[in-house]
Write a structure and sequence with these properties.
By secondary structure, this protein is of the alpha/beta class. The protein has a single domain, classed as Pyruvate-ferredoxin Oxidoreductase, domain 3, CATH 3.40.920. The chain contains 8 helices and 6 strands; from the N terminus they run E-H-E-E-E-H-E-H-H-E-H-H-H-H. The chain has a 6-stranded mixed β-sheet with strand order 2-3-1-4-5-6, sandwiched between helices. Helix 5 crosses helix 6, helix 5 packs across helix 8 and helix 7 packs antiparallel against helix 8. The chain is globular, with a radius of gyration of 16 Å.
Length: 196
């Protein structure tokens, strides 16, 4: 059985690091894993997506429309943009966070209202204020690892040694805060501190 995880966000949010950690963990757990990335001007705040598929035998790295088991969105407008890739029975983890594209930042159009509410009315949705949570931990850059922790918990992948992977793939100075962020994401997904 192949599972598909679609991670989407905006350049600079750490979407790719989260995907790489996820992919490495799944491979170490013995899964056949395929990953593909799309960087749309990611250095300048463009759309970034990463598709991770794992199982006994994965033929293609590409998630087709309506094929994702889980959509993890690091920015809420990106969740809306990629929603059609989610299975009807799939789940969305959405970071309640806004990064407007140039058209919005320049004032040409307003940031759309009610995105999270609209997504929640259509599919099973977990809303996390990862930016707020990261700020409380003392480093706003660990937002991606909070979301990774929530993803791991939601997909039932807790038996992989994620702490070891974080230690091996994150700069030493940031290991502890990333481990803390990951644990917090797991708790949030568990509903202990859920913002739902």
């Amino acid at each position: 059985m192949v599972k598909s995880i679609l991670l989407v966000g905006v350049g600079g949010q750490g979407t790719i690091l989260a995907s790489k950690l996820l992919t490495t963990g799944l491979m170490e757990a013995g899964y056949d894993v395929k990953m593909s990335e799309i960087h749309g001007m990611s250095q300048r705040g463009g759309s970034v997506s990463s598709q991770v598929r794992y199982g006994d035998k994965v033929e293609s790295p590409v998630i087709e429309l309506g094929g994702a088991d889980i959509l993890v969105s690091f920015e809420k407008m990106e969740a809306m943009r990629w929603l059609e890739y989610l299975k009807p029975t799939g789940k969305v983890i959405v970071n309640n966070y806004e990064i407007g594209p140039v058209s919005i930042l320049s004032g040409k159009i307003p940031y759309p209202k009610g995105i999270v509410e609209e997504i929640s009315s259509k599919v099973d949705t977990m809303i996390i204020d990862a930016a707020e949570e990261a700020k409380e931990l003392g480093n706003s850059k660990v937002m991606n690892i909070i979301l990774l922790g929530a993803t791991v918990k939601s997909m039932g992948l807790e038996d992989i040694d994620w702490e070891k992977l974080i230690r091996e793939n994150v700069k030493e100075a940031f290991v502890d805060i990333n481990i803390e962020a990951f644990a917090l994401g797991m708790r949030l997904a568990n509903g202990i501190e859920s913002t739902l």
